[in-house]
Amino acid sequence: MPGESASPLRGADAGRPAGRRGTLAAALAAGLLLVAVLAAIHLTQGSSPVTVAELWQVVTGGGGEQANAVLVASRVPRLLAGLLVGVALGTAGVVMQTVARNILASPDTLAVNAGAYLAVVAFAAFGLSLPLITGSLVAFLGGLAAAALVLGLAAGGGGNGGSGGGTVRLVLAGSAIALAFSALTTMLLLLFAEETTGMFAWGAGTLGQTSIDGVAQLGPVVLVAVLALLLIANKLDILALGDDTASVLGVKVRRTQVIAIVLAVLLSASAVTVAGPIGFVGLAAPAIVRLLAVRIPGLQRHRALIPAAAIMGVIVVLGADVLLRLVFGGSAAVAVPTGVVTTLFGAVFLVILARRLSDGGGTSSAAGFALGTSSSARTRRLLIVGAAVLLVLVAFFSLLLGDAKLLAGDLLNWVTGQAGPVTEFVLNTRMPRVLAAILAGAALAIAGAVVQAVTRNPLAEPALLGVTGGAGVGAVLVITIAPLASFWAVTAGGLAGAVAAAVIVFGLAAAGGFAQSRLILIGIGVSAAAGAIVSMLIISTDPYNGAKALTWMSGSTYGRTLPQLLPVLIALIVAAPILVGARRDFDVLAQDDDTPRILGVPLGRTRLGLLSVAVALTAAAVAAVGVIGFVGLVAPHAARALVGGRHSLVLPMSALLGALLVCVADALGRTVIAPGQLPAGLLTAVVGAPYFVWLLWRSRRTS
To answer: What residue range is the signal peptide (predicted)?
Structure first.
């Protein structure tokens, strides 16, 4: 965990005058009043035609049987779930921010929600029915493992926790681990569709309850955890001042951190068990309170900060649910999860915070890119030739593998036009899939190399620009509106979504001259919003039959034909001369901000132009095969490890390694559970996540 404190998290404020205490009390009272108003409105909303007057009669001891049933069986359980989730996530978020000393730490950015969700889905997929409390324990263990992994990987590489490199490192680690967990979860949802029916919708976070049993059983757990955190509030105040200061003042730092994180994860797991992973409440609620603490004396102390974050968490959750019902109506809002609204709100808030935070520049030099430089120039070129030969061999064997195994002679007969009808059919469908994997893998890898060079962050990838998420929104929108839409319609939707996302990200980042940290954080915020919109589209249109959209979002070459590969092929052909001409600009940009200016390279304009090329490549690849993660991260980094940091060699090696990775993943996906199939994007995530963990761990030890 970072050893320096961040200014947004400072602030044990002693010796307050009575007037200031009154200001604090008034602020907390105003928050409670707003909660009461939202709760009252919340009870009046729903799909049943029960009037406010009838509900009031139930409250006062009268009322009809229908009104009583609606209030007791539906609206009160939903309200109580909102209260519990808001308190749990708001409190968990504020504690995680204190321990990580990072205003962007939360159950989402630490992958706690993703880990808890994966654990619950895994048990359901294998037919294990668990009581509520046991299910909460499973979610707790999954969330705790995720938090420990992310905090361990994010520690040590970054400056102040409040901004710059430390913030980006934490969010990168959490986002990548969450992406890997989400890929595993999606794999289970696809493979065990019957056992996990309805869990995709639950995974977006919903307050819908059939009874108050869940709240009744987990309410005491949340209450005990909050009280326990209040008991160590003074230690948390001191902990926010830094490890060294806390140790001098007698606080046992590691023990306090462990206790606080365990309690925070327990709160998050309780919320996930009751309502699913409702996104970004744990980020937005405490961050809002910390911003208010600048103007409200005494609110910086955890004795006030914890209850204030809990109240704000309830306001965010109930406010999102009230807004959801106002916009969609009582009946439609039953199908749309509350977590979609909170994620959209949290994503907007993340973008706002990103624009306020100072830029730490990611990595300050090109040190992270200069790997493998001890080998000779001849050796590096031989490695590129070797990678090309290996790709040809992998493509050859990929044509032979699948639900129908072929021999080399079958392939030769097909090439010469002498194959039988079965062999011809198999290879006519398999060849476009192999080519799609190769072209999309190369495009994503090149785009990743561009993004990493321009942002000077070897842990960045194209998805962080929001382009992948935008393409997902566009394509899934077409799929859900017109289930029988052609490939070209889906492709056009994906391209339009990618361009829209890129315009938003670049437009928001332009004010800072495309500063690295700001650009990445804004991209992550846009990606989160895109993910929420995709979930809403799938769930609100056909929640129990979203297999087509899920498969596309998982990255698949299934059903591809040769004409459908034209967009990605054209993108590669157009991008190649541009990137070759800019190879020296890449080397300069990867150094620092000063060197390009000295050499006359227009920093902002060059970044924008090169990132636009990366966007086009990513959009074309996503339109061709769907969403495939980690290729743009793993392939460029592996390329630099093999051929060094010069982009004249990194770019072609990245393309070859990306093509290899996706081609192998596609072949395995067609073979491992044949005749069933696994989307290639899920397998690249399974391969890429451990590699990413190793990268973070390596940079942690060398930073």
So the answer is: none
Other C-beta atoms closer than 10 Å to the C-beta of 213 total 12
Tens-place pLDDT, residues 546-589: 566 666 667 778 878 888 888 899 999 999 999 988 888 777 87
If asked whether residues 125 and 244 sit together in one domain, one would say yes
Residue 380 resides in a domain: no
Question: Tokens 């339009």, residue?
Answer: 496
CATH of the domain at 267: 1.10.3470.10
- Nearest CA-CA partner of 296 in 24, 29, 30, 103: 24
Q: How confident is the model at residue 541 (pLDDT cuts 50, 70, 90)?
A: low
Number of domains in the chain: 2
Do 330 and 431 fall into the same domain?
no
Out of 295, 315, 340, pick the residue that ends a domain.
340
Upper half-sphere CA count for residue 494 (Cβ side, 13 Å):
30
Handedness of CA 472, 475, 479, 484 (dihedral sign): negative
Question: What tens digit of pLDDT does each residue of 473-485 get?
Answer: 888 888 778 777 7
Regarding whether 259 and 125 lie in a shared domain, the answer is yes
The string of pLDDT tens digits covering residues 585-627 is 777 877 776 677 777 777 777 777 888 898 889 888 887 887 7
CB 489 within 8 A of CB 552: no
Lowest mean pLDDT among 95-99, 197-201, 557-561, 675-679: 197-201
CA 55 to chain centre: 40
Provide the token pair at 171: 């969010």
Residue 111 domain-assigned?
yes
Burial of 292 (0-12, 13-18, 19+ CB in 10 A): middle
**Top-ranked range on mean pLDDT: pick from 33-42, 122-131, 318-327:** 33-42
Q: Which of 314, 340, 366 is the last residue of a domain?
A: 340
Helix residue spans in 192-280 (DSSP H): 199-203, 213-231, 233-239, 243-248, 253-275
